[in-house]
Amino acid sequence: MKWVYHTSRLAFGGWSVFSGMGHFLLRGWQPLGDEPASIAFTQALIASGLFTWVKVIEVILGLTMLANRAMPLTVIALVPLNVVIVYWNFALDEGAVEWTFGALSIAFNAILAWPWRRYFWPLIVWKGQADYGLATGWPPARDKV
To answer: How far apart (Å, rounded) are the C-alpha atoms in residues 41 and 105?
Structure first.
């Protein structure tokens, strides 16, 4: 499993850096899709300026993946970006290439999240106890033995 994780991390991280930097270095490079809905969606993101922020985040997350650092935070930050990517590939611009990229996005996210799963379980709290104090809580409290 370790080699699958590292291969996925390097492939997804490399692609994220390449795709993100392409927005800044290769004007007009961004694929808009073939369907009217995907073209309109992408053009609206670009025109609003939100697309530039998405690409900045994509580069940062790609670099953290390549460096294998802050991976639990990276995986969580990837989720909203990849929800949009998967939606774009499955709903807005359908086709074999798009479906492949959508499926790979899901697979890479699952593979990247799995080794870090123990960091995510504490986030799934139905009813917790809030701390309204000003202390940062860092480092996290350790259980006393």
So the answer is: 19
Q: Does 46 reside within a domain? A: yes
Q: Residue 101: which H helix or E strand, with range?
A: helix 96-113
Range of the domain at 60: 2-121
Q: How deeply is 78 buried, as exposed, middle or buried, from its count of CB atoms within 10 A (0-12, 13-18, 19+)?
A: buried
Domain count, the chain: 1
What percentage of the chain exceeds 70 in pLDDT?
Answer: 96
pTM score of the predicted model: 0.86
Angstrom CA distances, 92 to 6, 32, 42, 114, 141, stand at 31, 11, 10, 29, 46
